[in-house]
Amino acid sequence: MESGGPGNYSAAARRPLHSAQAVDVASASSFRAFEILHLHLDLRAEFGPPGPGPGSRGLSGTATLELRCLLPEGASELRLDSHSCLEVTAATLRRGQPGDQQAPAEPVPFHTQPFSHYGQALCVAFRQPCGAADRFELELTYRVGEGPGVCWLAPEQTAGKKKPFVYTQGQAVLNRAFFPCFDTPAVKCTYSALIEVPDGFTAVMSADTWEKRGPNKFFFQMSHPIPSYLIALAIGDLASAEVGPRYDLLFMPPSFPFGGMENPCLTFVTPCLLAGDRSLADVIIHEISHSWFGNLVTNANWGEFWLNEGFTMYAQRRISTILFGAAYTCLEAATGRALLRQHMNVSGEENPLNKLRVKIEPGVDPDDTYNETPYEKGYCFVSYLAHLVGDQDQFDKFLKAYVDEFKFQSILAEDFLEFYLEYFPELKKKGVDSIPGFEFDRWLNTPGWPPYLPDLSPGDSLMKPAEELAELWVTSEPDMQAIEAVAISTWKTYQLVYFLDKILQKSPLPPGNVKKLGETYPKISNAQNAELRLRWGQIILKNDYQEEFQKVKDFLQSQGKQKYTLPLYHAMMGGSEMARTLAKDTFAATASQLHSNVVNYVQQILAPKDS
């Protein structure tokens, strides 16, 4: 890795980080008072009926935290993030060096304290205060059954339909409902786990080494420090296939709420990616890019989520440009820009969530602030910084130096931007951080449309034909001869997506046109590709084309990805009486197979709190 650049900046001397003082209002824990050195989970999975009650499904065992006191004056209490679905039954403390079995294990008192609707504090009292720099091990015996962090699926909710499945989803603040922890991206630790499963099941985790121990136990170790939200577990009837150089992907059941989750060494991905045409490879590139941006260098709190996602979008599109060319990448970026436009139209540009740096208020679940802004506006800011440098090669070297400088740490925007200006002293001298209209502070703290948009004109060769074709469909008597002269059979998926985005922007179309459109392009109206199915569903609803309403319901029954599910419910509730009925019927039929967060968001769309 390059660590010196034009500014000849050496990474040798570790800089003090702004993030060392960063608060995280989403954590109830005392993560600044103690350093977590290692976490070990020893858990047994039982599949049974939904709980509570004897024999119900759950994970039970122990979580052992290796800790060191950071307070000069010592401490008499430790606070961890937990959740009402975690039932902690015992806590024991062992002082001294880790693994020192001579040290006596003493039971210690603990209690819970309310924190927010998404978690609570687990408070552990020390009978004798621990001194500055003291090391100790805390072992917590606990069980978790039903809850937001551990997702249990019945056999009929899986692809094989034969055996149940369980997985955990940590981002943003759900792992406190999996094990007691410092549930903040501000701190990182290594972890290990011993997982016992029933006969015929396999366990996998986000770890760099794993081994089978006996018929039913799996041991995992992650030797690099990671934030708590990246610790992930899945147990099911898993089959594996070699698809290339080692990068492990776990294709999840259809109800998985995300396109991908960048759990290190084991990315969880939606089965929607299996489109049969390699068209949705961008998601895989995106998740691989998180290995550097997000997993190696992490946002110190969820208000700085753009540091994870803006850089990852930039890296994804750099890789895509090399693999697939600039035209295709600019076309994909244009569809991303359309999503940002759509989001800002719905939320209002001045919505505070449309800042790069979001102020998350106490009590607000960071997941509720999730939107396109950190991805697409973040991408625009990183692109703007590359534009200021003016030399792609130099900026690529800078990105390597940035990762090298901050690897295994969590940072704030100030840490990154100071490093950028030190690396490029000539830009610092020019005062690029305060160019009127493009001030770094404005980028971070002003809501609204990005001040700078990267040039997507290399995509014109693919975008122009799609725009021209969309224009032909807007007239009340479409010129079918001109339409049929356009050979869309040769178009790539993202060209079709871009075309449908344009149709959606121009909808409602004149009467009869959507019916004709669907008949002319069965490749679109009967597509199996999820991105096309989403757009076709939105077009059906915007034009109130009731003959095809069943396709919207079918798509929502086939998968539970948040990014597809919520826009369709918004479109149904913003449509005709028939469309609103469709929304309620579809939700009644699918709620049991959706992730709990997605259920909550759909309920808010169906019956807004302020109505």
UniProtKB/TrEMBL annotation:
What Gene Ontology molecular-function terms does this entry list? aminopeptidase activity; metallopeptidase activity; zinc ion binding
Tell me which domain of life the UniProt entry assigns to the organism this sequence originates from.
Eukaryota
Note accompanying the cofactor annotation: Binds 1 zinc ion per subunit.
Q: Which reaction does it catalyse?
A: Release of N-terminal Arg and Lys from oligopeptides when P1' is not Pro. Also acts on arylamides of Arg and Lys
Q: State the EC number(s).
A: 3.4.11.6
- InterPro entries hit by this protein: Aminopeptidase_N-like_N (IPR045357), Aminopeptidase_N-like_N_sf (IPR042097), ARM-type_fold (IPR016024), LTA4H_cat (IPR049980), M1_LTA-4_hydro/amino_C_sf (IPR038502), M1_LTA4H (IPR034015), Peptidase_M1 (IPR001930), Peptidase_M1_C (IPR015211)
Domain annotation Peptidase M1 leukotriene A4 hydrolase/aminopeptidase C-terminal: ranges = 461-606
Q: Which Gene3D superfamilies match?
A: 3.30.2010.30, Neutral Protease Domain 2 (1.10.390.10), Peptidase M1, leukotriene A4 hydrolase/aminopeptidase C-terminal domain (1.25.40.320), tricorn interacting facor f3 domain (2.60.40.1730)
Give the primary localization class: secreted
Active site, UniProt feature? E287, Y375
User: In which compartments does the protein localize?
Assistant: Secreted
Cofactors needed by this protein, per the record, are:
Zn(2+)
According to its UniProt entry, one GO biological process term is: proteolysis
A single GO CC term for this protein reads: extracellular region
Q: Which residues bind Zn(2+)?
A: H286, H290, E309
| UniProtKB keywords | Aminopeptidase, Hydrolase, Metal-binding, Metalloprotease, Protease, Secreted, Zinc
Looking up SUPFAM superfamilies in the UniProt record yields: ARM repeat, Leukotriene A4 hydrolase N-terminal domain, Metalloproteases ('zincins'), catalytic domain
**Looking at the Swiss-Prot or TrEMBL record, what is one Pfam family this protein matches?**
Peptidase_M1_N
Q: What does this protein do?
A: Exopeptidase which selectively removes arginine and/or lysine residues from the N-terminus of several peptide substrates including Arg(0)-Leu-enkephalin, Arg(0)-Met-enkephalin and Arg(-1)-Lys(0)-somatostatin-14. Can hydrolyze leukotriene A4 (LTA-4) into leukotriene B4 (LTB-4).
On subunit structure and binding partners, the annotation says: Monomer.
What family does the database annotate?
Answer: Belongs to the peptidase M1 family.
Q: What is this protein called?
A: Aminopeptidase B
